[in-house]
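Hey, I'm writing a tutorial for new members on how sequence and structure tokens pair up, and I'd like a real worked example in the thread rather than a made-up one. If someone can provide the structure for the chain below, I'll link this post from the tutorial.
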Amino acid sequence: MTNTKKGELVVQRLESLFGNITFDDDFWRERNEPFWLIVDTILSQNTSSANSRAAFRNLFSTYQTVEAISLADVQDIERAIKQAGLYETKARSISAVASEIMGKYEGDTWSFIGGSYQSAKERLQQVKGIGPKTADVVLLFARDFNIIPVDTHVFRVSRRIGLAPQKGGYNAVKAALENEIPPGKRKFAHIALIRLGREVCIARRPQHWKCPLTDLCDYFQETSRDVYQTY
């Protein structure tokens, strides 16, 4: 079995398991304002979906435009998003993004994230608090680039399956996955691998009996062999 075929099989199995899952991004799309996607992605860092959604609702109920955020005191933004955790760092990032968009791009977020993938990513990462994963999530969903952002779940699941190297950081895992997964399936793969990591391939005691990938998974094969050898 080639690596490429393994990646394609993983996607096929996940499609059978989850069906047509999508990213919940109607809010910013309905407003045609990717600034809110950036905010949502920042708030989601290192917290639960419930906490990040609550923080987002609190923020938007008070500040409904990029300009309003740019003019707000950082301490007021902190209070609004406190439920998301790491609120001081996140508030500074959100304020900095809004100020950048208003100051250099006349409030046009599409221009801020425009241009080539590399230039847009570099521009996003110049904002303190926005790393490669956050930038890639924004560019995947707002610009439809054929990329696979790598969060904690994607790191763990892809390494266990054997789609990515056990060593190496963000860029190494991202490159390996993009080599494995066909371009048209990368957005789905990103969402599906996260869901698999949250629901099945959890950090401790992964639920192998629920997983459709055990025959493809290096981690399962290794742990099963270890268990067998103890008897």
